[in-house]
Amino acid sequence: MSNEIGAATALPTVNAYVYPRGGLDVLSRDEVARLKDASTGGMHDLLRRCALAVLTSGSASDDPRAAQELYPDFDIQVLQQDRGIRIELANAPAMAFVDGQIIRGVAELLFAVVRDLAYTAIELGPEYATDLESSAGITNAVFGLLRNARLLQPGDPNMVVCWGGHSINRVEYDYTKLVGYELGLRGMDICTGCGPGAMKGPMKGANVAHAKQRQYPARYIGITEPGIIAAESPNPIVNQLVIMPDIEKRLESFVRLGHGIIVFPGGVGTAEEILYLLGLLLQEENRDIPFPFILTGPTASAPYFEQIDQFIRLTLGDEAASRYEIIVADPEQVARRMSAGIRKVKEYRVGHKDSFYFNWSLSIPLDLQQPFVPTHEAMAALDLHHGRRPHELAADLRRAFSGIVAGNVKEDGLRRVEEFGPFRINGDRDIMQSLDALLRAFVEQRRMKIAGEYKPCYEVVA
């Protein structure tokens, strides 16, 4: 790698050539040519934004446009050569380098970006659109992306998915580390959405526990998607990153890859994830599938979970609430319950001859797999009324929260709200009142944004 200090920009920058390690280091000339074509076509701006996100890994901002404003002259090119590919970085953030050399973990994440965006462009391009019109076709696409990222590894079930907010307070963050530590002591690996806050804490705690238990290699998987990576750049502990094409494939990756899920306090994104999983577990086909699902936080977060629980019971009923367990201020108990739950998962998979590394048995209906584009018309058309089957109402509630996430931190959503005003969400009066109270609590507890005053991107209409 060669480099030099770039021209003066808002912050110090570096020009560099970077060569791949793993995944992209053994390629044919045809594969290199296709990779280069994919990266220089219409997806170049997407590649640039995602690459900038990993080069600013550890950033405290959740504004997707902040990094682009700080590094307006940054660019990335994928170059072809006989021994594979080479990435050229122009005016890259100096924070990604030490003494002129790119930090190894940052380099790995950078090539994960190139790998996944190129795979999506090449293997899931327009010519394969018909393959993505069926539930089985979408699941096969998710499988292909995870396998290409080398995330599907044989071995006993031990992957715990941790969901929670990027904007949480210090007490909650420290609690996520304690839970991660207890999980790590029991030999469990961690998968999160890859960002800061409740996505970083469990990895940090597990990292210490894995070192104590001499568990190598330990896995800290981050699953993200292009619309959100710029707002939630990967935390430094992530050692396996995959970028799924959209939020629905990201959510499916979590439940196919994970053997159990722990939810920490969070905001609308966390509520979206909870409703997605409940929508699956309430399907008749999935009722007998063991899937440990625990909501947990410190004592001060108990009211948060009480409000989430009340909202779920009002909208989806007590059966939905029976699919999860709430444990307050007891990291050891969380880890013990998760460990016991994963043992049941193993027994079930052995009995049903299902793989340990990919949950094929879980049924995911097509309407939960198809991407939801949160336009103002789509948000207003959501059917948030009583009388629907619980899993169908859960699906539309999930879409409502997904739209708010887009309006908060995704570029397209921010642009729509700036142009057309807040999204309007309507439905039965009691559902809207409960939803409004929940969202107001998120705002008051500063769960919507890391910094600055929050201006709602939504309007709840009874």
UniProtKB/TrEMBL annotation:
Signal peptide: none annotated. NCBIfam families: Nsidase_PpnN. The keyword Kinase does not apply. Its EC number is 3.2.2.4. Keywords: Glycosidase, Hydrolase. Residues 17-122 form the Pyrimidine/purine nucleotide 5'-monophosphate nucleosidase N-terminal domain. One of its GO terms (molecular function) is AMP nucleosidase activity. It is an enzyme of class 3 (hydrolase). The keyword Iron-sulfur does not apply. It catalyses: AMP + H2O = D-ribose 5-phosphate + adenine. InterPro entries: LOG_fam, LOG_family_nucleotidases, PpnN, PpnN-like_sf, PpnN_C, PpnN_N. This is AMP nucleosidase. It holds the Pfam family DUF4478. Residues 342-461 form the Pyrimidine/purine nucleotide 5'-monophosphate nucleosidase C-terminal domain.
